[in-house]
Design a protein that fits this description.
Dna Ligase, domain 1, globular, 18 strands, D-amino Acid Aminotransferase, Chain A, domain 1, homodimer, Rossmann fold, alpha+beta, 11 helices
């Protein structure tokens, strides 16, 4: 890693959605310029960035321009093609590192990587197209798993998209039709108590810091609410931090990383398994803007710019609620009925059903002490 | 006042410095577009605004374009000419209102206005050019003021610029040379204990909210540090809020207003006099981004957009320190030695002596309870 980038340097950001937007805002706060590349003309991040390039992610000329303009390039999503990474890396620094993106954009690679670290995952088997489904099912049966199962596409899935649930072996035909020739993983269902996410940041020098894990609630596979503090025992939090550290160190990671985990059991017999790794800032860390000294967005920028990390300490109890689709119409009411709600709207014009339009963070009253 | 502006509306901002920059960032957070007009090509606010107009403040064509683009126009400074206000008002809404700008951009008008409200000011007399100086001095002598005095230009002064100190009548010749034919006020010095600022916000419907008054420390007339909480008795804070309310109501004000006051004496015999009114967000309110639920910048935007105000509650103790000129070279060290420091750099290229380049806000450790 080179020296810290001086103020006035340019952070290239691939992806122009709300994550890119909040990254660009964090860069500007630190006196860094943001150059955002995204294909949509009305990308939310364009409005807050010093420069932008409107181009498809596989446009090599555009990628080269981004790399030339930027002192480091970072990402709001993990689905960056190997070719795009090659073009970017040939001309500038890239963070997080290529390997982190390659592994996390493919569920088979990701689960193999986690297994290789000796960390727990849900029982799983790789599936290379419909013909391999029965064999995967038998493999899971051999582990004592007889359903329900989740069949998840190896690539491009997010927010519950790209997956289907199988009650048991009877659903095999339907699953085969759905899968076709795509690669996937078949997972046994985990009877978890809590789904928690550990949002951590790793600096270029290896220093790490961790945000408090929120209690996340999902609706239709999409994050609805994050609540901090969650009632998670300190021993679980400690192990979750250790897991995130193992993962980040094995990837020689730089930036913010979010690790989603399942917590099974309670008391001393708990089991913490890795569900998914996101090599980026994460929806379940949005509350850090309001409730922490330095947010996940600012710490990601600090890390990729080679700057010292800021404190991840949480100074307030808080609740983050996503506004999806037409939820956004209630924005005025939501802030009028409680002035302790800090509102974020992403500047998206069309409130399509389920689309992430904004969120609010409510600072909760301090408990008397 | 019209209905609340819908998300996606445009906030016009006259002025492109750090205040305009933080206003534009607050607008973007709320899903509003910012269009910034300022004369300097590398204005700090341009980099974070959806649109900008690079033109002189008296360029009527440019002002008209700004008014056409914007659903409301607001300001980062008070020195807006009557003609510019006329052009803007002929095509769009303006907030804060014209009268607030007219009064606060002229010390004579401002002090007369404050006197008219029955609020205390330092003993003062208007001075219309050098020939009127001796008469002003005699008038102050009649109030029992024999020096030292401050001679302050009626217009364009800020951050201690545009003023000189007179030890007494002996300095009259020097003062006359300095003043020339400009208008000014001559003030008796106030032996204040604390210089405090009340940053308040008033919504279009008259609702008001107040931030905690920080203890401000100046260096060479420029704000150096704001500390919250200040040790100011509750009765003083209450009176300071009442004064700010009187001023804002008399101006039918909309937006953030900052009132600088001098506190003389302590205990029940205290006296709170009005030093200066700034019809805008204020340097002594920068700490509100980190330490309050909703910052002064966001509340200003909410108010001028006709939105509900957010809570001004302070959730943390904090210290804001300005980085002037080459102070900014120490930015890395400042954040490395204390991770609880949130850094703001304004993206200014040239670190001229005394120029406001950035600031940091340090979240202070919570006192045990």
């Amino acid at each position: 890693m080179a020296d810290p980038l001086p103020p006035g340097s340019t952070i290239g950001i691939l992806g122009g959605g709300q994550l890119g937007r909040m990254l660009a805002q964090a860069a500007a706060k630190l006196g860094l310029r943001a150059c955002v590349m995204a294909p949509e003309r009305d990308s939310p991040a364009f409005d807050v960035a010093a420069a932008h390039i409107c181009a498809d992610y596989d446009d090599e000329g555009a990628l080269r321009r981004l790399a030339e303009e930027a002192d480091v390039v970072t990402f709001e999503f993990e689905n960056v093609t190997a070719r795009a990474l090659e073009v970017l890396e040939s001309a500038t620094r890239v963070a997080p590192p290529r390997r982190a993106l390659e592994i996390t954009q493919d569920r088979i690679a990701e689960k193999s990587f986690v297994d290789g670290l000796g960390l727990a995952t849900a029982p799983w088997a790789p599936v290379s197209g419909r013909a391999a489904l029965r064999q995967a099912l038998e493999r899971l049966a051999g582990m004592g798993e007889h359903g329900p199962f989740f069949l998840k596409m190896a690539r491009q899935g997010y927010d519950g998209k790209g997956q289907m649930r199988l009650a048991g072996a009877d659903d095999l035909g339907e699953a085969a039709d759905w899968l076709g020739e795509r690669a996937a993983v078949l997972e046994g269902a985990v009877a978890f108590e809590i789904e928690l996410s550990m949002v951590a940041v790793r600096a270029a020098d290896g220093q790490m810091a961790f945000y408090d894990p929120p209690h996340n609630t999902h609706r239709s596979g999409v994050l609805h609410e994050s609540l901090v503090p969650a009632s998670i025992p300190a021993s679980v939090v400690e192990q979750a931090q250790d897991h995130a550290r193992s993962i980040a160190e094995a990837l020689d990671y730089v930036g913010v990383i979010a690790v989603e985990m399942f917590l099974e059991g309670s008391g001393e017999g708990f089991r913490l398994s890795i569900n998914e790794i996101a090599p980026r800032v994460h929806n379940s860390g949005h509350w850090t803007i309001e409730a922490c000294t330095v947010s996940q967005f600012e710490n990601h920028i600090r890390a990729v710019a080679g700057w010292p990390l800021g404190s991840t300490r949480r100074h307030s109890d808080a609740r983050m609620v996503n506004l999806l689709g037409r939820d956004v119409d209630a924005a005025f009411t939501l802030i009028a009925e409680n002035p302790a709600r800090s509102l974020h709207l992403y500047g998206k014009r069309e409130a399509r059903p389920g689309r992430k339009m904004g969120h609010f963070v409510e600072i909760l009253p301090r408990k008397e002490c």
